[in-house]
Amino acid sequence: PNVDCDLIIQYMCHPQLRDGFVTDTITEATKDTQEVDQKTNKLSFKYGMHEPYEFYAKCSKRIRNKGLFIADQNLGATDTAMRTRQEDNRNNPHGFECEEERDYYPYWHPSPWRDIAVLTSNTGRCSYFKKHSQNQEGKFECSTPERNNQDECVASGGQWAYTNPWNIDPPECIANGFSRDNHLGNTKTGFTNSYNWVIPRLSSFTNDYLNADGTANCALRIRYNISTGDYPGWNQVDNNGAMIDSSSNNVNSPVRQNPYVGYGKNPSDPNSPIWQLRLALNTDQYGRTFEDRSHMFYMSKRPSSVAASHRIINLNVRGKRGNIVEAYPAVEYDFTPNELRVNVGDFIHFQWTGCDTNPNYAGEGTQGTDRSNIVEIEDRRKNYPRDFSTQTMFENAETAWKMAHLNQYGGKICATDTQTDCCKTLDQLNRAGGDINQNVQNCFKLNDPSAQYFDGGPIQMKKSGTFDYMSTRNNNFSNRSQKGTIYVEPLLPTWGVVVASCGAVGFVGASLVAGGAYYASTHPTSAVATYFAGAAV
Hints:
The chain is of the alpha+beta class. The protein is built from 11 helices and 20 strands. Mean pLDDT is about 90; it is low at about 500-535.
């Protein structure tokens, strides 16, 4: 590998967490601003917010950790935790995040984020990550927010206050999948690296983190750090040695900004000086932490009709409007997982969302909008849907119709040319004039403005088979493809069927199968549940 790399996957839930309806960044002055959202016609908070303001307020006052290695970067002694070696956002913060908490993991003060997983290039550090995760380890902070350590806190009359751990499982810590530099997570297989997250139960939250109706407002973030081997950043963890700290700052730094290095004398010149080369090194990015976040999503209880022994797997859409150049560094529309393997009895929750404020990039339907649907195709080389009457992917016509048409305008067809709360017919669209592909009542192009988020609900896959599908809106054959495949495996794998039918041995085999099914029903997220999903015991 060219770098050390750690990916930290985290989530946060809080009643104050919200999306806004503008893309501007929230500030202290605007955090309570409410206006009428023109899309919903409701009075709403104008600006989105992830971290609670109280978390940001403490960080913006707390003096930064002056024991950290900052190379030859010029940070002041009174700079707060809103400034790190990597970034100075004191006057231009990214929402209410704390720069120091974002750039360092595990963090030493309380954080609103809960750990899901650590994907690392060095699994020897896993015990360290798990031990110091706030999932398992409580954190301290001073009641006088300016102080960042116990001695100064107590000396100033403050209280060195303890915050309990989340008391949830430590993060899973596993080896990173291989990916080339700057290739957007693509692996040797041609698919992107991924991690399967089992959504936590709402019972793991106290009421302080839930809405009044028992749901939770949540967000996900991925922080990925790339580190260099040019200084011992992990020496204490890896070798029980001294970890690099502030004693190696400034003139003592082992790395310098864009340094000149000597690289040999000219062999043909006996009087040659040592020739110099200049390296392209920026010490505020050496190593470096990046971050991606989701918009807000809700966690809710599983429907009462779905037993706890059944798995529910999300099927979503990723990517954005535009051609490959315009979408970069994101990707064009794609289903995710692109290839999904489930068992008979599993539920798939078909749901996706999009943006209505994209730039005027290439795409279908109303300019600036994202929309997707699902229709079955005979195989992925085909670009026409199967006849509606012969589709086999969904159990009934109602579900297949909803997946294809997104229940736009409640399934209502306009009776007259002047109606606005309905889908226009092709004749009505042509009579309306203009570019019919931009008409918001053109449901053939999925243009209903209210279809920005589609929730198909959990649908049980009741028969085995291979089902190929596409989106009719975005599957431009020559430019881009939006297709996927669902493989539904039989309830019992082949070995289970064979063992269960082997005469006298069959009793033992059947007992094993029954035992496995029982274990699956009581451990729905286990590997065994993959084989026994949907078993009734």
